[in-house]
Amino acid sequence: MNPSDHREQVGQEVLETREWLDSLDYVLENGGPERAGRLLQQLALHTARSGYRLPFSATTPYQNTIPSAKQPPFPGSQELERRIKSLVRWNALAMVMRANKRQEGIGGHISSFASAATLYEIAFNHFFRAQTPDGDRDLVYFQGHAAPGIYSRAFLEGRISEKQLENFRREMADGGGLSSYPHPWLMPNFWEFPTVSMGLGPIQAIYQARFNRYLENRGLKQCNQGKVWAFLGDGETDEPESLGAITLASREKLDNLIFVVNCNLQRLDGPVRGNGKIIQELEAIFRGAGWNVIKVIWGTDWDQLIQRDRDGLLVKRMGELCDGQYQKLFVESGTYFRQNFFGSDPRLLKMVEHLSDEQIEKMRLGGHDPIKVYAAYKAAVDHTGSPTVILAKTIKGYGLGESGEGRNITHQQKKINDEELLIFRSRFGIPIADEKLHDAPFYRPADDAAEIQYMRERRKQLGGYLPDRKMRAPKLEPVSEELFKEFYTGAADRKVSTTMVLVRMIAKLLRDPKIGKLIVPIIPDEARTFGMEALFRQVGIYSSVGQNYEPVDMDTLLYYKEAKDGQILEEGITEAGGLSEFIAAGTSPAHHGINAIPFFVYYSMFGLQRVGDLVWAAGDQRSKGFLCGGTAGRTTLAGEGLQHQDGHSHLLAYPVPNLLAYDPAFAFEIAIIIQDGIRRMYVEQEDIFYYITVMNEPWAQPSMPGDVREGILKGLYRFKASEKKDFKLKAQLFGSGAIMLEVLKAAEILEEKYKVAADVWSITSYKELYKDGNACERWNILHPGAKHRDSYVASQLKDTEGVLVAASDYVKALPESISPWMPRPLISLGTDGYGRSESRASLRDFFEVDAKHIVLATLTGLLRDGKIKAAEVKKAITDLGINSEKPDPFSV
């Protein structure tokens, strides 16, 4: 095509485009956006029917979602808010700098908040509601790395002292300090959500918003339009948890949920998407998932240029550059920006010929523009029918000077030099003299200053200060003993698993007139595996829309019943989602003043191993409730094999300080543990939660052998004393959970065949014994000369005789963890190694934890003590049918 023909074609296309746009403007003006949308759909349908396929795009042009003409008026004083924001910026910077001057390497981050300051300040001044007129409240998941800015604002508000700011990241210093990131465990009257393990904030926010609706639909909480806000970085969206549950939010129509993604284009080491566009990528993901997407890319300085861009040249250019190029543009001069952005087309250069290089350099991005951010937040709050995500473009390290603003190293920046500090001071108008700048002093105006008065008034209008954590729920009345009494007596005529015992207990709690409505059963699509399907009919499965279909099993007694006021949270195949829901329920006493009591029942293998980070977060935010690991133990789950057989979850529970872990063997043990757990968590309001493992192997449940309540709760009691008092050979056998019956069988064999009197002890919690033993050890070390404190293990076993043998369906490290407080050497049997697809009997033989191996271990102990001869042990190996040469299960 010759040049003249090409120009003619381009001119024709421009003319056609103008005509179509004029026509669309007419439709929009006279029929509105809905009519225009229907028309566009008809055009797309007509094209498809004609046999043509239109190019697909899940994104909109690289421009603001809300045009300047549609922006609401800004309701506050932009000047006062600018000054407040500058003070917040300064003190956040000073806090990190001073901390690192006093203690080199103490750390801290200033660049994340520097990029997000406007995003937070607009929310604090106009949107975050500590209390709505109807008594509800917003819940805010602050981005972890922005903590310095949140502390800085609280300092200006008068909620944090200068001494605390001085001790940032030095929590044990005199006068108290501030934790590095949001940690409710460390600052229980301030932070509400731990978010710095990236990805956990977003998924928790989604399930928190969903749980809020659950409470409303069940009548436990009024529908008062409280919002859940989650602030996250664009790099954080690489974490699977950040985006893994976003379709739940749209499916549930959670218009009480708002994500704010700070798109500063950078993660720790470099660009988030150097060769792509993270905002466009996220827009496609969220739009495809059904979210309302609001892009805030360009500031007010760009409005006139965009309005004059009738032919779309500027928007086209905006869409051509990748994020790596934008990052370079933002750190260079106005001259560079003019040449490398506008210089691609003479017509673009013409558009900015009236602007100086300095003016071009100062053109703000949308995420730094209060007017644009306010418009986005207002639209998000007013939106109904779906969750909203705001994608705000910012510059990482905004205002930190040439060494930090927009640079790849800025995430690690802790200090800026004196010249940059002076520029920062002058740029943001901080009234600090030059000679004092080197020390980066804190600055707070007097209480009667306009800035302080404005801040306080805005927060007063919004119901108070945030973040603000406190116990809002009243103490529960103790649960009646009658509810648990049936489990104290055995059922020798009927075999039941401890899983079924737990389900029966939950069912009774659900029927209780006082606390039944507070019970929250949570299941990740395994209700029938755990025998919980009877609860479908009893209380229903929660669905925000009820049940709009007839279930395929409608004619059965235990059909799949969904209801808007259903009580069971059936999460689907997602332990991460289930645990996030557990956290939302378990923290509702603090967040909503509602004593929700969650029971999260799941395959034990897919709990602490799979979502241990969320369990740690649950502990940090002082969650309450019961984590119930079903089909627990390495050998109780016959046939399932390596991936399903759990032999280590109790060991994984050790690091979480406020998680109490129990491995009960009998119904009465479970009853005592749950009854006391409800008392401690909801009557005494202790900040603890529980991990209880239950099995699917049925056996006859014995009666409680006397008053053993204390021993059950502390972790150890004598279940059965040997009646063979005249036997010279003695043994103390320790069992728990799935292996308890094997221990009892071993005791019988030892007495009948080998004349060994064996007492049987139930260890309900190795962790409680371990914790108690270490506490005593610590006290004794710190108090030389004082009366020695005995651990609970030592006090219970001090008068016993014989060898000590512990058998567990978990790794040997579990029983060995309490061996320091045993009166004699302990022989441990456990299930170290990968599981197998086999029967229970074969698995217990393979892992050497069945009755015959317990007998052998006991005889070996007697041999070591010189009580019997080696020949007797060799004969026992033959008689018991043990293969001495079989491979070590730990190695195969």
Helicity, as a percent range: 40-55%
Please state roughly what percent of the residues sit in beta strands, choosing from under 5%, 5-15%, 15-25%, 25-35%, 35-45% or over 45%. Answer: 5-15%
> pLDDT average, as an integer?
93
Number of strands: 20
Major β-sheet profile:
6 strands, parallel
> What value does the Rg take, in angstroms?
33 Å
Number of helical elements: 34
Strand order of the largest sheet: 10-7-11-12-14-13
- Global morphology: elongated
Low-confidence stretches: none
> First CA to last CA: what distance?
73 Å
Class computed from helices, strands and strand pairing: alpha/beta
List the helices and strands and how they pair.
Elements: H1 3-49, H2 78-102, H3 111-126, E1 139-141, H4 147-157, H5 162-166, H6 200-217, E2 228-233, H7 240-243, H8 246-251, E3 257-263, H9 278-288, E4 292-296, H10 303-307, H11 313-320, H12 323-331, H13 334-340, H14 346-351, H15 357-361, H16 370-382, E5 388-393, H17 418-427, H18 450-461, H19 482-485, E6 491-496, H20 498-511, E7 519-523, H21 534-539, E8 541-542, E9 562-563, E10 569-570, H22 575-586, H23 588-591, E11 597-603, H24 612-620, E12 626-630, H25 649-652, E13 659-662, H26 667-683, E14 689-693, E15 699-701, H27 709-714, E16 716-720, E17 729-735, H28 740-754, E18 756-763, H29 766-782, H30 792-797, E19 803-807, H31 813-816, E20 826-829, H32 840-846, H33 851-864, H34 870-880
Parallel strand pairs: 1-2, 2-3, 3-5, 4-5, 7-10, 7-11, 8-9, 11-12, 12-14, 13-14, 17-18, 17-19, 19-20
Antiparallel strand pairs: 6-15, 16-18
Helix pairs in contact: 2-3, 2-4, 2-18, 3-16, 6-22, 22-24, 28-33, 33-34
